[in-house]
Amino acid sequence: GGRLTGDNTDVAGLLEALTPLGAKGPWLVAGTGGSARAVAAAARERSTTLLVRSRDPARAVEFAAWARAIGVDAVADDGRPVRTAFNATPLGLKADDPWPFPEERLTGCRTALDLVYRPGGTAWVRACRSRGMRAADGRAMLVAQGAYALERFFPGVVAPREVMAAAVRRALGE
């Protein structure tokens, strides 16, 4: 009808990636960029509290205020226990990157989703798993985002998620 419409598949992809992990709230997110915004919108969908952590505490406060404005129960990280942690920073792209959270911050945390993905996985995901946490990297979110985009561009088509996941594994050399 001559009108432009915008959409994204970040939140739907994130929620799909969380399903097999059994993620519960409250949630803790490292980062304040676009990926963190998807985490905040997903927290709103799940009606869970979101704690925000950033290298710059002022940015965490500002991001939490933005998240509250869209209906999320959000605060800058105040140290309270969380059940699910998200890395929404680029940390983990390089093998020697530090973790997005200090190890002690994850005491009691049961689930982790690293939005980063790389060949061999990220050190943070491996560390979370060694602590007994359910943890995954961002490839499940990537596949889900692509699948939702394909289904939106081609209504009635069911995206071949398994084929797409295999392509991602192959691209990552796994």
Element layout with pairings:
Blueprint: H1 10-18, E1 27-30, H2 34-46, E2 50-53, H3 57-69, E3 74-76, E4 84-87, E5 111-114, H4 123-130, E6 134-136, H5 139-153, H6 161-171
Parallel strand pairs: 1-2, 1-4, 2-3, 4-5, 5-6
Name its key features:
174 residues; alpha/beta; 6-stranded parallel β-sheet; 6 helices; 40% helix; globular
Strand content: 5-15%
Q: How many E strands?
A: 6
- Poorly predicted regions: none
- Average pLDDT, all residues: 95
Strand order of the largest sheet: 3-2-1-4-5-6
Radius of gyration based on Cα positions: 16 Å
Model description:
With 174 residues, the chain is of the alpha/beta class. 40% of the residues lie in helices and 13% in strands. It contains 6 helices and 6 strands; from the N terminus they run αβαβαβββαβαα. It has helices at residues 10-18, 34-46, 57-69, 123-130, 139-153, 161-171, and strands at residues 27-30, 50-53, 74-76, 84-87, 111-114, 134-136. Strands 3-2-1-4-5-6 form a 6-stranded parallel β-sheet, sandwiched between helices. Helix 4 (123-130) links the parallel strand 5 (111-114) and strand 6.
